[in-house]
Amino acid sequence: MKIGELSRRTGVSVRLLRYYEAQGLLASQRSPGGHRHYGPEAPTAVARIRALLAAGLPTRVIREIMPCFAGDGTEVQACVLDHLRTQMVELDSRIADLAQARAALGDVLQASTRSLTSA
Fold first, then answer.
1. Which fold has domain 3-118?
2. Which residues form the HTH merR-type domain (predicted)?
């Protein structure tokens, strides 16, 4: 299928599909005229890419995981589970950092509000 059809079938823009290909996440064959042609598995690959991006994984990690899917869904082989667990720990750390930053900002806002109302 051509890139426009893949875009229509997946709801992902042509620009993003090109980006996925440039990042090594999606493969295509080129026609003699230079047009991209994707295999029948491309919509499934795009759905997996979208799911992993929604899970907060960077494209470099997704590229490593793409060959390790089991079945037609988002289940992966056991050999990459530790990698995903590491990503989960990193997300937890970022969430904790953001929570601290939010609390600090709340303190600044609260102090500022008190200052303005007592003046």
1. Multidrug-efflux Transporter Regulator; Chain: A; Domain 2 (1.10.1660)
2. 1-68
